[in-house]
Amino acid sequence: MKDYISKDPWKIIENGFHPEFNKITESLCALGNGKMGLRGNFAESYSGETLQGTYFAGIYYPDKTKVGWWKNGYPEFFAKVLNACNWIGLKVFIGEEELDLHKCNILSFQRVLDMRQGTLQRSCTFTTANGHEISLNTERFCSFHDDEMGALKFNINAKNFSGKIKIESYLDFDIVNEDSNYDEKFWNESKISSAEVIYNEATTKKTNFHLGLALKTRVTHGGKQIKRSSIGQKEKYISEIFEFEYTTDTEVNIQKIIAANSSFYYAQTELESRAIEKCATAFDAGFEELKNSHVNAWSKKWDQSDIQIEGDVSAQQGIRFNIFHLNQTYSGKDDRLNIGPKGFTGEKYGGSTYWDTEAYCLPFYLSTADQEVGRNLLVYRFKHLTKAIENAQKLGFENGAALYPMVTIDGEECHNEWEITFEEIHRNGAIAYAIYNYINYTGDEAYLAEFGLEVLIGISRFWTERVNWSEAKQAYVMLGVTGPNEYENNVNNNWYTNYIAKWCLKYTIECIDKVRQSESNDWQKISTKVAFSEDEPNNWNKIIEKLYFPIDEEKGIFLQQDNFLDKEIIKVADLDPKHLPINQNWSWDRILRSCYIKQADVLQGLYFFEDHFDKETIRKNFDFYEPLTVHESSLSPCVHSVLANYLDKKEKAYEMYLRTSRLDIDDYNNDTEDGLHITSMAGTWISIVEGFGGMRVKDNHLHFAPKLPQNWESLSFTINFRSALIHIKIDQKEIYLENTNLCQ
Amino acid sequence: MKDYISKDPWKIIENGFHPEFNKITESLCALGNGKMGLRGNFAESYSGETLQGTYFAGIYYPDKTKVGWWKNGYPEFFAKVLNACNWIGLKVFIGEEELDLHKCNILSFQRVLDMRQGTLQRSCTFTTANGHEISLNTERFCSFHDDEMGALKFNINAKNFSGKIKIESYLDFDIVNEDSNYDEKFWNESKISSAEVIYNEATTKKTNFHLGLALKTRVTHGGKQIKRSSIGQKEKYISEIFEFEYTTDTEVNIQKIIAANSSFYYAQTELESRAIEKCATAFDAGFEELKNSHVNAWSKKWDQSDIQIEGDVSAQQGIRFNIFHLNQTYSGKDDRLNIGPKGFTGEKYGGSTYWDTEAYCLPFYLSTADQEVGRNLLVYRFKHLTKAIENAQKLGFENGAALYPMVTIDGEECHNEWEITFEEIHRNGAIAYAIYNYINYTGDEAYLAEFGLEVLIGISRFWTERVNWSEAKQAYVMLGVTGPNEYENNVNNNWYTNYIAKWCLKYTIECIDKVRQSESNDWQKISTKVAFSEDEPNNWNKIIEKLYFPIDEEKGIFLQQDNFLDKEIIKVADLDPKHLPINQNWSWDRILRSCYIKQADVLQGLYFFEDHFDKETIRKNFDFYEPLTVHESSLSPCVHSVLANYLDKKEKAYEMYLRTSRLDIDDYNNDTEDGLHITSMAGTWISIVEGFGGMRVKDNHLHFAPKLPQNWESLSFTINFRSALIHIKIDQKEIYLENTNLCQ
Predict the structure, then answer these.
(1) Cβ of residue A396 closer than 8 Å to a chain B Cβ
(2) A442 touches chain B (CB under 8 A)
(3) B598-616 mean pLDDT
């Protein structure tokens, strides 16, 4: 656990430079606007530890699937969002000496992520190896107002130097992905031009995406504009070069304004002219005006989504940090995009979509954004339905059964471990549950006929073929699965998977009836399209009736899987702490055989379907499973925090909340340098709103059952519920609700 | 299935060239002598399909472990026996034209592996692109008399050509392994010299093995010796060059004599002088004398190990082919060597040792070679005991528990799939069983005190830690294993594994008692060395008494694993044949969930421990499991053939025998081009001797219960039993036994 970030309600502040944590700070200080993003790298060259990263949504490369032993059914490729053009880059030469903080003696340093404004600032003073004393002030943003724009301001002042300064402001596509084998590069040069605005366009290998960036740089020296001296050009690289005689102690101000667009959105032929035009217009408006509209956009976003915690600045900073990054990662404008586990903050997991979106992220976007945003997350999966059906076919399923991928960008499965790829099929359940969740929250029943029902039918058909009749049990069983607890593989009758499958079959029947009655024309179209047979619901009902669930009557618990109680049961608290985390200290063999649970599994089901069970059942299961849970997934504590609140276990609820809310700021898992845990951030939001706030939506009504931690004075948040913006404030005594629409 | 090899009792004959099957024929025609071997490649250059392969026992390279997602406990490297110096190589130029059969018009062609002599011959006539009519006769062997020697004879005659002929006779270490990533090479040049005898020595990267080969070439033209013209030299390559004026229709005779030795056996400093001296001496003796001693050595080997089948030439050829390659692969002289699944015939599986050795190969070597040979196979594992204990420690075991690797060359685990590496632990059982099997066969009880007991104790300690007490079952259980049937992964209570574990604990107690009584000094030493505690057998007895076994009372069968009967049970015979083999037609997911069995699992246990069960129990299990078995491992049919004979199922026994005996000759699995299935060849031997011959060793006596297939006139084989060479002949009516020692 690190503790170098200052506590502040609105800011992430690194006071004094911590080069040893630089990659962590770069992750924390990443900026994004849903369409593009970049890590908090320095603009100038830096030879110390850094992961230079710039990412554009939707632009991916299908890399080779890497396996030890190939299994039939493995995916063709592993799609990864590519590290792309570095557009903040500057090379600054003071005389002959290139500016590089790694080689300087730093006198003062502050890096500040201003979450209210969505800007990253840095001020520092230092002496170079040649003894020049320099002060530097810089600020940047990815425009939240216009998600194709970015801007950098870079002010520099040399106290004891006069002479030649050279500034090279560049766009560099000669980039290697961090995990690239043998330093293979995935970009080809496409087009480079250098008029008033310079332009660099590159193409991804294989997928042939075109991404073009236009740049115009303004350099002033003591307020006087410096003319561009020349153009620098190399393969996949272009720069504007400014050279001038510097007068000591005079400020140099550099502004980089860029516009980026790609063939993901526009015809390739348009890219250059569009980007250059947008860049030129924005350049004329200037950095400050661009910034103003950016900050205004953020202000509106905060009005919708902020959470205030009075009396606990650490918790306040934590939750705002999470909300900030969730909003940076996904704007909900485009139903072809989704939420990668690291957002725009790193390369791990390839920027792909997991079941995290449906199981953890959806509630945040439902409550803090327009209905369209949550809807687009669902439509993303609808658009991949054909590929999900093909994916199931590859594994031997028929008749329109759909298995959504575990990991994907464009609908193709990308994961390469059989125990996950083929067996962690509960993801299908989460995708169905998200449809229910969305409609339950928004009341948008029309979604069913338009998109949802086809998905539900595809998934229900999958469960139908995936179960088999057991003569021994005289019941349907689901063999060979991996549940949410990935510390078990290839188990039989995972209770959670069986439960969500059964629920899904029921819900699908219910939805079919609903659409059939209320939108009979639509139903005609759908049933023809999917070649629906009236026998199907009969078959589903048989499975619903006769699906097997492992339980232990004596303990009054659902069993995580068949024979779970054959394991040696020792609580985590009774383990010698030297064994923790077990994923670092134990062989995989030992983990699999142990009773230890990576993240909520049975309890995930009780969280989703709380209303289906009495409190005593939930309590018994919680009391049995939580003590066996090591919470070694970032997605684990939030669900436990909500359940603990529900069960009036206030201490456990707060303990679990602490484990999730400052995970990245405090680098709890020692991996923030790889990027932030974006999807678990939504879990933090859930643990506040559904946990401490006790919010539920039942029968088209909002319900609250708040239970505030003792050290919090108050908790406030805003909820967008069916077009009403409702502000909720909870203190230790009361709850205040305000429908802000009515107040306007 | 291919059918281009002529049926012959002693020979593998390719009549007419089949370039499309050339890699298959190269595998079939591989030669070896336990220390070195090579595929049946052409000596002259060949630009068609070929896998040029030359291998030396014990010379391996630790290549990178390749995995998708790293798991704790995975091995550091993957050891592979390296493709090494090509020593048969010749470049032959007729005028300007290099000889290359791929570019010639072939008039006649015959390639013959003479198994009685252990030689590979080829005669062919062809016209070159330039229209020269050439006849070629060549023969080679790896000396069975002196396993460091090899020789090639290559006679050539050109009908309508006079002019310059150039012959380059080379030693080439510039070799790439077939599975090498990015064509990485694993050999470095070490030493090259060129006196009367030329010498090429190279070193393996990382492991630093030195391998040196000396070569002397004799070329005659019309009986007149041609002087060497020059030496050719490149990196890792040296050659003798002969150039002369050729007179039409005059025979050119080339003889290559090589001697090879390595730092696996000798000091590196000795290698050059030893090899050169051996080569020079052998060269003076000449090809024919070398061949005579080689053929004599084979003749003795055949006296010990031949099987004759009268009335079925196809079966005769099959079994001889298997015996021939088993003898080529492993000579038993060196307890550091073992039996790779492909021997010297290809690169797949890296030349490593599997449990195949103990479970399938040992009986062949016990019966057909000196006692020392089988003993060395056991000592190989004894020498790896320390590494097996370290391997178990890596996985979290303590107290001297030993887990032998699934795949190894030098005792280090090399496999990289968790479901095999960590879970296929029954291999430990086979290693213990081999000790029992060896002592039961040979009566060599002294082996226990010398080597065997320490291994048994290490393995028993492993089982002790690997089981856990199940409160639910009130029994010890063994969770998370993979049985011999690798179409199941991570199952609980695999009956076979539990049974062999229990047997192993019992046998270890028995052996400790035996050694304690008869060799009390040795016992003192052993018990001190392994820090034996008298509590251990008590603990083992508890496990023996309370170990859980899944059974189905109603069906009267042992269950392959917990909940096996939850699967959908459909016999293989009732599957649409389009699904077979399932490992090519089904996703891994579907295979795992199915009831289909790759190779004997419960039945493997009933084969090993036949005496522990009544015939009715064996029959019920056979009748249940065999119909679910797809026999997609080459190791499967043999066990079923033996059991079928035991159960008087003559047709099934013969059907299973046919699946194993000509597997490679007929390329049954479409993979002979990768190399031969050496370890399953020992299974073929078992299915004849233990199956049709019905041989058993019980209470220090040989027993026979022969059941000859109807179309066989007679079956004869020779058994080395406790220093008596016993010849057995079985016909449809009687069995004849002859102790050949007594006849001498």
Answers:
(1) yes
(2) no
(3) 98
